UniProtKB/TrEMBL annotation:
Ranges of compositional bias, category Polar residues: 92-101
Protein name: Transporter
Principal localisation: membrane
GO MF annotations, alphabetized: antiporter activity; xenobiotic transmembrane transporter activity
GO biological-process terms attached to the record: xenobiotic detoxification by transmembrane export across the plasma membrane
Taxonomic source organism: Wickerhamomyces ciferrii (strain ATCC 14091 / BCRC 22168 / CBS 111 / JCM 3599 / NBRC 0793 / NRRL Y-1031 F-60-10)
NCBIfam families assigned to the protein according to its UniProt record, in alphabetical order: matE (TIGR00797)
Protein family per UniProt: Belongs to the multi antimicrobial extrusion (MATE) (TC 2.A.66.1) family.
Keywords linked to the UniProt accession: Membrane, Transmembrane, Transmembrane helix
Acidic residues compositional bias, start-end: 78-87, 127-137
Length: 645
């Protein structure tokens, strides 16, 4: 007892002279491990033994460049390394037990919490220092930020926490590989303006092809069925509009994954990406039950809007046949975002390059072929079959080609935190639904001007929708990069990705504007042979072309807001501008001032200008510290949920 008291008194006298950085005790050049901590028989992190496999975490140094690298083995982490870059020998007694269970979560979560507590206690003013230093603390030369070694260490440990499950071993003393299986290391990725522009192009091009191919399904139905008769053409248009409104709800729900999945992937929480996907997919399927019932009885609701009974009957029939394919399309959208978070953008392109031509072929055969053709309902049958083919093929791509590294199996964690998911999903639904419905209302307005105006409006709105997909693809690419960097806690790189995204939106909009003006007559002639309709379309095309610049800013800025987790701001702006400013102005210019289509597009163009500029301002002037705090809070909620699982 006397010896113990003497040691305790000696340590107390030494303590004021020593400085701790949360990992161990030492100065700026050297870290000393806390080898005086007595062995614990309660925590598996403090077990001692003669073999390396029985050693555990006693302290953590800052030099963990090997952790997460394919060539390193956890069994040798505890061995002495060469001198660090600051000079002097770095002593580390850190090693991982080689006898790892399938679920090491409690041990690693305990480690993260302990070291986060130690770090916070030693550096209580880090956050205030960051705020006072402002932009001067960021190093924009190469956009490398290696100052926060603790954050990077925690990120790498979290990334490897999920990898341990796949690389667990059963023999004592055997080495464990922590290969990331192709996962990007956002902690050390060198990011420059040129590299980020290249990434934006690399991500955007397959997305543009994907979204354009997706638009083919509704267009093919209209073209194939339209030759049967005018009632069938009107019915398929009405059914397509109704289904698009419903799909927009679930696409809005899926936009929550634009925030959650890339942030988890950037933070190294690979299995978290899969859990977010599971949670959103389950919630979508649960919500689809009431929507599916409404869809089935759509004829009851359509008769209050459309007075023609035969038109209502045909549209209702089309929707009923198409209903079984809706869940497949919803799951396809969720799975596509799961892959996009991992930087896998070409998967949807490959799938649609196969399914889109098959849809054309099946639509023709099922509608017109004299042997197997069934007429009008052949079009929705073809759509349903293709939706399931799309989903099954994308699952096959994920399992057999790329994307399974973030799939840790079905987890009970996906049954929790639905409320938190809805906080991101509901604003996303509002953003998409508000915009979708506003264009449908404009088409309804145009119908009161006459048949020629309605035909011209249909032509220009279709072209505008197709062009919008180009900007929307740029937005998704920017959103993914922003969220990845937020997850990796590299605010400087997230800012750069946001700036390049907004600048890319303006450039894309200008290019679209020029092309539409140059090709205005050929584009108009694609939709009608009536010279009056063609001329009316050509006359309004310059205005539509200019509007695309603002619409491009709207598409990209809205996506960037989702990457930042600020969907709520975008929903407020869209709701206010479209329905408080845009639609009233459309009625005033179009009817009261008798500008007709020009009045409609002047009003919507002014609204898109306000939305694009406002959302871009919020993206570029975001409170990044608040964004980081919210992302950290979601991580903590997931960790708490994991400890309960």
């Amino acid at each position: 007892m006397a010896v113990a008291n003497l040691i305790s008194q000696t340590l107390q006298e030494l303590q004021p002279r020593l400085r701790t950085n949360g990992f161990g005790i030492g100065n700026a050049h050297r870290k000393l491990s806390l080898t005086f901590i007595p062995p614990s028989t309660k925590s598996p992190l403090f077990q001692y033994g003669s073999s390396p496999g029985q050693r555990s975490f006693l302290s953590l140094g800052t030099d963990y460049e090997g952790l997460g690298n394919d060539r390193d083995r956890l069994g040798s982490i505890g061995e002495e390394d060469e001198d660090d870059e600051l000079g002097g020998e770095l002593s580390r007694t850190v090693s991982l037990p080689s006898q790892i269970s399938e679920r090491p979560d409690p041990e690693l979560n305990w480690l993260l919490e302990e070291h986060h507590r130690h770090y916070s206690s030693v550096h209580p003013s880090d956050e205030s220092e960051e705020e006072s230093e402002g932009e001067d603390t960021q190093d924009y030369h190469g956009y490398q930020d290696d100052s926060d070694s603790f954050t990077q260490l925690m990120s790498r440990i979290r990334r490897n926490q999920h990898q341990f499950r796949k690389n667990s071993v059963t023999s004592v003393g055997s080495a464990v590989s922590v290969s990331q299986q192709g996962a990007e290391d956002f902690d050390h990725e060198k990011v420059t303006i040129r590299s980020e522009i290249n990434k934006l192009l690399q991500y955007s091009i397959p997305l543009i092809i994907t979204f354009l191919l997706e638009q083919i399904f509704s267009v093919v139905s209209v073209l194939v069925v339209g030759h049967i008769g005018k009632n069938e053409l009107a019915a398929v248009s009405l059914a397509t509009m109704t289904s698009n409104i419903v799909f927009a709800v679930f696409e809005g729900l899926a936009t929550a994954l634009d925030t959650l999945c890339p942030q988890a992937y950037g933070a190294g929480d690979l299995y978290g990406v899969g859990i977010h996907f599971q949670r959103c997919a389950l919630m979508s399927m649960a919500l689809f039950v009431p929507f599916g019932i409404i869809w089935w009885f759509a004829g009851f609701f359509l008769k209050f809007v459309v007075p023609e009974p035969e038109l209502v009957r045909l549209a209702s029939l089309f929707l009923k046949v198409m209903l079984p394919g809706a869940p497949a399309y919803i799951l396809f959208e969720n799975l596509k975002r799961y892959l996009q978070a991992q930087g896998i953008f070409e998967a949807g392109t490959y799938v649609l390059l196969i399914c889109a031509p098959l849809n054309v072929l099946m639509s023709y055969l099922l509608v017109w072929n004299k042997y197997i053709g069934v007429g009008f309902i052949g079009a929705p049958i073809a759509i349903t079959i293709n939706f399931w083919m799309m989903f099954i093929m994308l699952v096959g791509y994920t399992v057999f080609i790329d994307g399974d590294k973030c799939w840790g199996g079905f987890s009970k964690k996906s049954l929790y935190h639905w409320k938190d998911l809805m906080h991101l999903a509901i604003p996303g639904v509002i953003m998409l639904e508000v915009e979708s419905l506003s264009y449908e209302i404009m088409t309804l307005f145009a119908s009161y001007f006459g048949t020629e105006y309605l035909a011209a409006q249909s032509a220009v709105s279709t072209i505008a929708s197709l062009v919008y997909m180009i900007s929307f693809s740029v937005g998704i690419a920017s959103s993914t990069r922003i969220a990845n960097f937020i997850g990796a806690r590299r605010i400087d790189c997230a800012k750069l990705a946001a700036k390049i995204g907004i600048y890319g939106a303006v450039i894309t909009g200008i290019v679209d504007c020029i092309l539409m003006i140059v090709l205005k007559r050929p584009l108009a002639q694609m939709f009608s042979k009536d010279e009056g309709v063609v001329q009316m379309t050509v006359d309004i095309f310059p205005l539509i072309a200019v509007v695309q610049v603002f619409d491009s800013m709207n598409a990209v800025a809205g996506s960037c807001l989702r990457g930042q987790g600020m969907q709520r701001i975008g929903s407020y702006i869209n709701l206010f501008v479209y329905y408080v400013i845009g639609m009233p102005l459309a009625w005033y210019f179009g009817y009261y001032l008798d500008f007709k289509l020009v009045g409609l597009w002047l009003s919507i163009g002014f609204g898109l200008f306000l939305i694009g500029v406002s959302e871009s301002w919020f993206v570029l002037n975001a409170d990044w510290q608040k964004i980081m705090n919210e992302a950290d809070q979601r991580k903590e909620d997931e960790l708490e949920n994991g400890s309960m699982d």
